[in-house]
Protein backbone atom coordinates (compact mmCIF):
# COMPACT_ATOMS: atom_id res chain seq x y z
CA UNK A 1 0.00 0.00 0.00
CA UNK A 2 2.85 2.36 0.88
CA UNK A 3 4.56 1.84 -2.46
CA UNK A 4 1.28 2.50 -4.28
CA UNK A 5 0.59 5.72 -2.34
CA UNK A 6 4.13 7.00 -2.82
CA UNK A 7 3.52 7.29 -6.55
CA UNK A 8 0.16 9.10 -6.33
CA UNK A 9 0.17 12.82 -7.25
CA UNK A 10 -2.04 13.88 -4.32
CA UNK A 11 0.56 15.92 -2.48
CA UNK A 12 2.73 17.83 -4.94
CA UNK A 13 6.29 18.35 -3.71
CA UNK A 14 6.01 15.60 -1.11
CA UNK A 15 6.42 11.86 -0.86
CA UNK A 16 4.90 9.33 1.54
CA UNK A 17 7.24 8.08 4.21
CA UNK A 18 4.79 5.88 6.15
CA UNK A 19 1.11 5.21 6.91
CA UNK A 20 -0.19 4.57 10.42
CA UNK A 21 -3.54 3.42 11.81
CA UNK A 22 -4.87 5.66 14.59
CA UNK A 23 -6.96 4.42 17.49
CA UNK A 24 -10.17 6.00 16.16
CA UNK A 25 -9.81 4.15 12.84
CA UNK A 26 -8.36 7.10 10.93
CA UNK A 27 -5.25 6.98 8.75
CA UNK A 28 -2.17 9.10 9.48
CA UNK A 29 -0.02 9.58 6.39
CA UNK A 30 3.44 10.90 7.16
CA UNK A 31 4.95 12.95 4.35
CA UNK A 32 8.46 14.12 3.60
CA UNK A 33 9.61 16.76 1.15
CA UNK A 34 10.50 15.45 -2.27
CA UNK A 35 14.29 15.72 -2.81
CA UNK A 36 13.78 16.62 -6.46
CA UNK A 37 11.39 19.49 -5.68
CA UNK A 38 12.75 22.93 -4.80
CA UNK A 39 10.58 24.96 -2.38
CA UNK A 40 8.81 28.10 -3.57
CA UNK A 41 8.61 31.37 -1.66
CA UNK A 42 5.14 31.99 -0.24
CA UNK A 43 5.37 35.69 -1.14
CA UNK A 44 6.88 35.90 -4.63
CA UNK A 45 6.32 32.22 -5.63
CA UNK A 46 9.89 31.93 -6.97
CA UNK A 47 12.21 29.00 -6.18
CA UNK A 48 14.23 29.44 -3.00
CA UNK A 49 16.76 27.04 -1.54
CA UNK A 50 17.53 28.93 1.69
CA UNK A 51 15.60 27.21 4.48
CA UNK A 52 15.43 29.13 7.75
CA UNK A 53 13.61 26.47 9.81
CA UNK A 54 11.47 23.34 9.50
CA UNK A 55 8.35 22.43 11.40
CA UNK A 56 5.78 19.69 11.07
CA UNK A 57 2.05 20.26 10.80
CA UNK A 58 -0.89 17.90 11.10
CA UNK A 59 -3.66 18.66 8.59
CA UNK A 60 -6.89 17.03 7.54
CA UNK A 61 -7.30 15.60 4.01
CA UNK A 62 -10.30 14.18 2.18
CA UNK A 63 -11.65 10.86 3.49
CA UNK A 64 -10.42 7.73 1.76
CA UNK A 65 -13.30 5.26 1.40
CA UNK A 66 -14.62 5.01 4.98
CA UNK A 67 -11.44 6.24 6.70
CA UNK A 68 -10.61 9.71 7.97
CA UNK A 69 -7.25 10.85 6.60
CA UNK A 70 -4.72 12.99 8.44
CA UNK A 71 -1.42 14.20 7.05
CA UNK A 72 1.77 14.89 8.97
CA UNK A 73 4.01 17.00 6.73
CA UNK A 74 7.03 19.26 7.04
CA UNK A 75 6.51 23.01 6.62
CA UNK A 76 9.62 25.02 5.72
CA UNK A 77 10.18 28.68 6.51
CA UNK A 78 12.28 30.21 3.75
CA UNK A 79 14.72 33.09 3.70
CA UNK A 80 13.97 34.38 0.20
CA UNK A 81 16.78 36.28 -1.49
CA UNK A 82 14.46 37.43 -4.29
CA UNK A 83 12.00 39.46 -2.21
CA UNK A 84 14.06 39.72 0.99
CA UNK A 85 11.25 38.11 3.00
CA UNK A 86 11.28 35.35 5.54
CA UNK A 87 8.01 33.51 4.86
CA UNK A 88 6.48 30.04 4.86
CA UNK A 89 6.88 28.08 1.63
CA UNK A 90 4.08 27.89 -0.93
CA UNK A 91 2.31 24.50 -1.06
CA UNK A 92 -0.07 24.19 -3.99
CA UNK A 93 -2.63 22.02 -2.19
CA UNK A 94 -2.55 23.71 1.22
CA UNK A 95 -3.25 27.34 2.13
CA UNK A 96 -0.92 29.22 4.42
CA UNK A 97 -1.62 28.41 8.10
CA UNK A 98 -4.46 26.09 7.02
CA UNK A 99 -5.26 22.85 8.83
CA UNK A 100 -7.29 21.39 5.96
CA UNK A 101 -6.28 20.72 2.36
CA UNK A 102 -7.91 22.25 -0.71
CA UNK A 103 -9.69 18.94 -1.35
CA UNK A 104 -11.42 19.13 2.03
CA UNK A 105 -12.42 22.75 1.44
CA UNK A 106 -13.98 21.96 -1.96
CA UNK A 107 -15.76 18.95 -0.46
CA UNK A 108 -17.21 21.02 2.39
CA UNK A 109 -18.26 23.82 0.02
CA UNK A 110 -20.27 21.33 -2.04
CA UNK A 111 -21.91 19.74 1.00
CA UNK A 112 -22.80 23.10 2.61
CA UNK A 113 -24.89 24.00 -0.43
CA UNK A 114 -27.09 20.95 0.13
CA UNK A 115 -27.16 20.28 3.87
CA UNK A 116 -27.41 22.22 7.14
CA UNK A 117 -24.08 23.05 8.76
CA UNK A 118 -24.75 20.71 11.68
CA UNK A 119 -25.24 17.78 9.29
CA UNK A 120 -22.07 18.61 7.33
CA UNK A 121 -20.13 18.77 10.59
CA UNK A 122 -21.33 15.29 11.61
CA UNK A 123 -20.60 13.88 8.15
CA UNK A 124 -17.08 15.27 7.86
CA UNK A 125 -16.05 15.27 11.51
CA UNK A 126 -15.09 18.97 11.31
CA UNK A 127 -16.22 21.60 13.80
CA UNK A 128 -19.39 23.64 13.17
CA UNK A 129 -17.41 26.87 13.03
CA UNK A 130 -14.94 25.39 10.55
CA UNK A 131 -17.77 24.47 8.19
CA UNK A 132 -19.37 27.87 8.59
CA UNK A 133 -16.10 29.72 7.94
CA UNK A 134 -15.44 27.71 4.77
CA UNK A 135 -18.93 28.36 3.45
CA UNK A 136 -18.75 32.02 4.46
CA UNK A 137 -15.55 32.48 2.47
CA UNK A 138 -17.16 30.83 -0.56
CA UNK A 139 -20.18 33.10 -0.36
CA UNK A 140 -18.01 36.16 0.12
CA UNK A 141 -16.08 35.34 -3.04
CA UNK A 142 -19.28 34.89 -5.04
CA UNK A 143 -21.56 37.58 -3.62
CA UNK A 144 -19.47 39.90 -1.47
CA UNK A 145 -19.25 42.66 -4.07
CA UNK A 146 -22.28 44.80 -4.83
CA UNK A 147 -23.40 44.51 -8.45
CA UNK A 148 -26.55 46.13 -9.88
CA UNK A 149 -25.76 46.87 -13.51
CA UNK A 150 -28.66 48.18 -15.61
CA UNK A 151 -31.29 47.37 -12.98
CA UNK A 152 -34.61 48.94 -13.97
CA UNK A 153 -37.22 47.20 -11.83
CA UNK A 154 -36.83 46.39 -8.16
CA UNK A 155 -38.72 44.31 -5.62
CA UNK A 156 -38.23 45.37 -2.00
CA UNK A 157 -39.61 43.51 0.98
CA UNK A 158 -39.04 43.02 4.69
CA UNK A 159 -38.84 39.73 6.58
CA UNK A 160 -38.56 38.74 10.21
CA UNK A 161 -34.90 38.37 11.17
CA UNK A 162 -35.37 37.30 14.78
CA UNK A 163 -38.16 37.13 17.30
CA UNK A 164 -39.10 40.42 18.92
CA UNK A 165 -40.06 42.47 15.84
CA UNK A 166 -36.55 42.58 14.37
CA UNK A 167 -36.67 42.83 10.60
CA UNK A 168 -34.39 42.92 7.60
CA UNK A 169 -35.00 44.28 4.09
CA UNK A 170 -34.17 42.59 0.80
CA UNK A 171 -33.82 44.29 -2.60
CA UNK A 172 -34.27 42.10 -5.66
CA UNK A 173 -33.79 42.73 -9.38
CA UNK A 174 -37.29 41.84 -10.62
CA UNK A 175 -36.13 41.02 -14.15
CA UNK A 176 -33.12 38.84 -13.33
CA UNK A 177 -34.54 37.41 -10.07
CA UNK A 178 -31.27 38.33 -8.35
CA UNK A 179 -30.96 39.52 -4.75
CA UNK A 180 -28.89 42.69 -4.95
CA UNK A 181 -28.74 43.67 -1.29
CA UNK A 182 -29.90 42.58 2.15
CA UNK A 183 -29.74 44.87 5.18
CA UNK A 184 -30.86 44.78 8.79
CA UNK A 185 -33.86 46.96 9.65
CA UNK A 186 -36.86 48.30 7.72
CA UNK A 187 -36.69 52.03 8.40
CA UNK A 188 -35.71 54.72 5.90
CA UNK A 189 -32.25 54.97 7.46
CA UNK A 190 -31.83 51.18 7.28
CA UNK A 191 -32.55 50.90 3.54
CA UNK A 192 -30.74 54.10 2.51
CA UNK A 193 -27.33 52.32 2.16
CA UNK A 194 -28.79 50.30 -0.73
CA UNK A 195 -29.55 53.42 -2.75
CA UNK A 196 -26.15 54.86 -1.85
CA UNK A 197 -24.53 51.75 -3.31
CA UNK A 198 -26.79 52.01 -6.35
CA UNK A 199 -25.49 55.53 -6.94
CA UNK A 200 -27.19 58.56 -8.56
CA UNK A 201 -27.11 57.07 -12.07
CA UNK A 202 -28.47 53.74 -10.88
CA UNK A 203 -31.29 55.44 -8.99
CA UNK A 204 -32.19 57.45 -12.08
CA UNK A 205 -32.50 54.22 -14.13
CA UNK A 206 -35.02 52.61 -11.76
CA UNK A 207 -38.50 52.84 -13.31
CA UNK A 208 -40.59 50.73 -10.91
CA UNK A 209 -40.31 49.32 -7.39
CA UNK A 210 -42.73 46.66 -6.10
CA UNK A 211 -43.31 46.62 -2.34
CA UNK A 212 -45.89 46.17 0.35
CA UNK A 213 -47.65 49.17 1.90
CA UNK A 214 -44.64 50.17 4.00
CA UNK A 215 -44.65 53.95 4.35
CA UNK A 216 -40.94 54.17 5.25
CA UNK A 217 -39.90 52.17 2.20
CA UNK A 218 -42.33 54.13 0.02
CA UNK A 219 -40.98 57.51 1.13
CA UNK A 220 -37.34 56.50 0.72
CA UNK A 221 -37.90 55.11 -2.78
CA UNK A 222 -39.66 58.31 -3.88
CA UNK A 223 -36.85 60.42 -2.41
CA UNK A 224 -33.99 58.41 -3.92
CA UNK A 225 -35.49 57.33 -7.28
CA UNK A 226 -37.38 60.29 -8.80
CA UNK A 227 -38.28 58.38 -11.98
CA UNK A 228 -39.57 55.26 -10.21
CA UNK A 229 -43.22 54.29 -9.93
CA UNK A 230 -44.16 52.53 -6.70
CA UNK A 231 -46.17 49.35 -7.36
CA UNK A 232 -47.98 47.83 -4.40
CA UNK A 233 -47.83 44.09 -4.21
CA UNK A 234 -51.05 42.09 -4.55
CA UNK A 235 -49.96 39.31 -2.19
CA UNK A 236 -49.41 41.67 0.74
CA UNK A 237 -52.64 43.60 0.17
CA UNK A 238 -54.74 40.43 -0.02
CA UNK A 239 -52.98 39.05 3.07
CA UNK A 240 -53.80 42.23 4.96
CA UNK A 241 -57.41 42.08 3.72
CA UNK A 242 -57.70 38.56 5.06
CA UNK A 243 -56.27 39.55 8.43
CA UNK A 244 -58.07 42.86 8.93
CA UNK A 245 -61.39 42.17 7.19
CA UNK A 246 -62.14 38.47 6.69
CA UNK A 247 -60.86 37.42 10.12
CA UNK A 248 -62.57 40.32 11.87
CA UNK A 249 -65.93 39.68 10.19
CA UNK A 250 -65.66 35.94 10.86
CA UNK A 251 -65.06 36.53 14.58
CA UNK A 252 -67.90 39.07 14.76
CA UNK A 253 -70.31 36.67 13.05
CA UNK A 254 -69.27 33.84 15.37
CA UNK A 255 -69.93 36.05 18.38
CA UNK A 256 -73.49 36.75 17.22
CA UNK A 257 -74.21 33.01 17.33
CA UNK A 258 -73.40 32.30 20.97
CA UNK A 259 -76.91 30.89 21.39
CA UNK A 260 -76.25 28.40 18.56
CA UNK A 261 -73.04 26.52 19.49
CA UNK A 262 -72.96 24.26 16.41
CA UNK A 263 -73.41 27.10 13.92
CA UNK A 264 -70.84 29.15 15.86
CA UNK A 265 -68.26 26.38 15.64
CA UNK A 266 -68.76 26.09 11.89
CA UNK A 267 -67.90 29.77 11.43
CA UNK A 268 -65.02 29.73 13.93
CA UNK A 269 -63.40 26.80 12.08
CA UNK A 270 -63.84 28.29 8.62
CA UNK A 271 -60.76 30.53 8.65
CA UNK A 272 -58.68 28.62 6.09
CA UNK A 273 -61.68 28.00 3.86
CA UNK A 274 -62.17 31.76 3.60
CA UNK A 275 -58.50 32.70 3.21
CA UNK A 276 -57.36 30.07 0.71
CA UNK A 277 -57.83 30.51 -3.01
CA UNK A 278 -60.89 28.71 -4.30
CA UNK A 279 -58.75 26.90 -6.91
CA UNK A 280 -56.68 25.30 -4.13
CA UNK A 281 -59.68 23.77 -2.33
CA UNK A 282 -60.59 20.12 -2.59
CA UNK A 283 -64.08 19.26 -3.81
CA UNK A 284 -65.48 18.62 -0.32
CA UNK A 285 -63.90 21.84 0.96
CA UNK A 286 -65.42 23.79 -1.93
CA UNK A 287 -68.86 22.43 -1.05
CA UNK A 288 -68.44 23.48 2.59
CA UNK A 289 -67.38 26.95 1.47
CA UNK A 290 -70.44 27.36 -0.75
CA UNK A 291 -72.72 26.27 2.09
CA UNK A 292 -71.03 28.70 4.48
CA UNK A 293 -71.29 31.66 2.12
CA UNK A 294 -74.92 30.88 1.31
CA UNK A 295 -75.79 30.85 5.01
CA UNK A 296 -73.93 34.03 6.03
CA UNK A 297 -74.33 37.23 4.00
CA UNK A 298 -71.53 39.34 5.62
CA UNK A 299 -68.99 36.55 5.07
CA UNK A 300 -70.23 36.11 1.51
CA UNK A 301 -69.80 39.84 0.88
CA UNK A 302 -66.23 40.10 2.13
CA UNK A 303 -65.26 36.87 0.37
CA UNK A 304 -66.56 38.11 -2.98
CA UNK A 305 -64.92 41.50 -2.51
CA UNK A 306 -61.63 39.76 -1.74
CA UNK A 307 -61.90 38.04 -5.13
CA UNK A 308 -62.87 41.31 -6.87
CA UNK A 309 -59.96 43.11 -5.21
CA UNK A 310 -57.49 40.81 -6.97
CA UNK A 311 -58.98 41.67 -10.36
CA UNK A 312 -57.80 45.28 -10.03
CA UNK A 313 -54.17 44.09 -10.29
CA UNK A 314 -54.94 42.11 -13.45
CA UNK A 315 -56.44 45.06 -15.34
CA UNK A 316 -54.90 45.39 -18.84
CA UNK A 317 -54.80 49.21 -18.68
CA UNK A 318 -54.75 51.93 -16.05
CA UNK A 319 -58.15 53.12 -17.26
CA UNK A 320 -59.69 49.68 -16.80
CA UNK A 321 -57.97 49.36 -13.45
CA UNK A 322 -59.45 52.70 -12.33
CA UNK A 323 -62.90 51.52 -13.37
CA UNK A 324 -62.51 48.29 -11.39
CA UNK A 325 -61.19 50.22 -8.42
CA UNK A 326 -64.14 52.62 -8.36
CA UNK A 327 -66.59 49.73 -8.62
CA UNK A 328 -64.87 47.84 -5.80
CA UNK A 329 -64.66 50.91 -3.57
CA UNK A 330 -68.35 51.68 -4.06
CA UNK A 331 -69.34 48.13 -3.12
CA UNK A 332 -67.09 48.21 -0.07
CA UNK A 333 -68.42 51.54 1.21
CA UNK A 334 -72.03 50.46 0.64
CA UNK A 335 -71.57 47.12 2.42
CA UNK A 336 -72.29 48.53 5.91
CA UNK A 337 -69.55 46.20 7.22
CA UNK A 338 -67.33 48.32 9.48
CA UNK A 339 -63.99 46.46 9.06
CA UNK A 340 -64.44 46.44 5.26
CA UNK A 341 -65.27 50.16 5.14
CA UNK A 342 -62.24 51.04 7.26
CA UNK A 343 -59.95 48.92 5.10
CA UNK A 344 -61.32 50.47 1.89
CA UNK A 345 -60.75 54.01 3.17
CA UNK A 346 -57.14 53.20 4.12
CA UNK A 347 -56.52 51.46 0.83
CA UNK A 348 -57.73 54.49 -1.13
CA UNK A 349 -54.53 56.33 -0.14
CA UNK A 350 -52.53 53.75 -2.11
CA UNK A 351 -54.63 53.85 -5.28
CA UNK A 352 -51.84 55.14 -7.55
CA UNK A 353 -49.50 52.31 -6.58
CA UNK A 354 -52.25 49.76 -7.11
CA UNK A 355 -53.16 51.04 -10.58
CA UNK A 356 -49.47 51.18 -11.53
CA UNK A 357 -49.56 47.37 -11.76
CA UNK A 358 -51.27 47.79 -15.17
CA UNK A 359 -48.11 49.49 -16.50
CA UNK A 360 -45.62 47.39 -14.56
CA UNK A 361 -47.17 43.92 -14.07
CA UNK A 362 -44.67 42.72 -11.48
CA UNK A 363 -45.90 39.37 -10.20
CA UNK A 364 -46.72 39.05 -6.52
CA UNK A 365 -45.41 35.49 -6.64
CA UNK A 366 -41.89 36.94 -6.76
CA UNK A 367 -42.08 38.32 -3.24
CA UNK A 368 -43.93 35.25 -1.98
CA UNK A 369 -41.21 33.01 -3.44
CA UNK A 370 -38.45 35.09 -1.82
CA UNK A 371 -40.12 34.95 1.60
CA UNK A 372 -40.71 31.21 1.42
CA UNK A 373 -37.11 30.53 0.38
CA UNK A 374 -35.80 32.70 3.22
CA UNK A 375 -37.86 30.67 5.70
CA UNK A 376 -36.35 27.46 4.33
CA UNK A 377 -32.82 28.87 4.73
CA UNK A 378 -33.57 29.83 8.33
CA UNK A 379 -34.90 26.35 9.11
CA UNK A 380 -31.85 24.68 7.56
CA UNK A 381 -29.56 26.94 9.56
CA UNK A 382 -31.00 26.06 12.98
CA UNK A 383 -30.35 29.73 13.78
CA UNK A 384 -27.53 31.61 12.08
CA UNK A 385 -25.18 33.23 14.55
CA UNK A 386 -24.40 36.32 12.50
CA UNK A 387 -26.56 38.29 10.10
CA UNK A 388 -23.82 38.85 7.49
CA UNK A 389 -23.56 35.11 6.81
CA UNK A 390 -27.35 34.75 6.69
CA UNK A 391 -27.61 37.60 4.17
CA UNK A 392 -24.97 35.98 1.95
CA UNK A 393 -26.96 32.72 2.04
CA UNK A 394 -30.01 34.64 0.82
CA UNK A 395 -28.02 36.18 -2.03
CA UNK A 396 -26.70 32.74 -2.92
CA UNK A 397 -30.27 31.40 -3.11
CA UNK A 398 -31.14 34.05 -5.72
CA UNK A 399 -28.02 34.45 -7.92
CA UNK A 400 -30.08 35.69 -10.86
CA UNK A 401 -30.79 34.38 -14.32
CA UNK A 402 -29.26 35.39 -17.63
CA UNK A 403 -31.53 37.54 -19.72
UniProtKB/TrEMBL annotation:
It comes from the Bacteria. Residues 89-138 form the Transposase IS204/IS1001/IS1096/IS1165 helix-turn-helix domain. Coiled coil: none annotated. It holds the Pfam family DDE_Tnp_ISL3. Signal peptide: none annotated. Residues 154-394 form the Transposase IS204/IS1001/IS1096/IS1165 DDE domain. InterPro entries: Transpos_ISL3 (IPR047951), Transposase_DDE (IPR002560), Transposase_HTH (IPR032877). This is ISL3 family transposase. It comes from Pseudoduganella plicata.
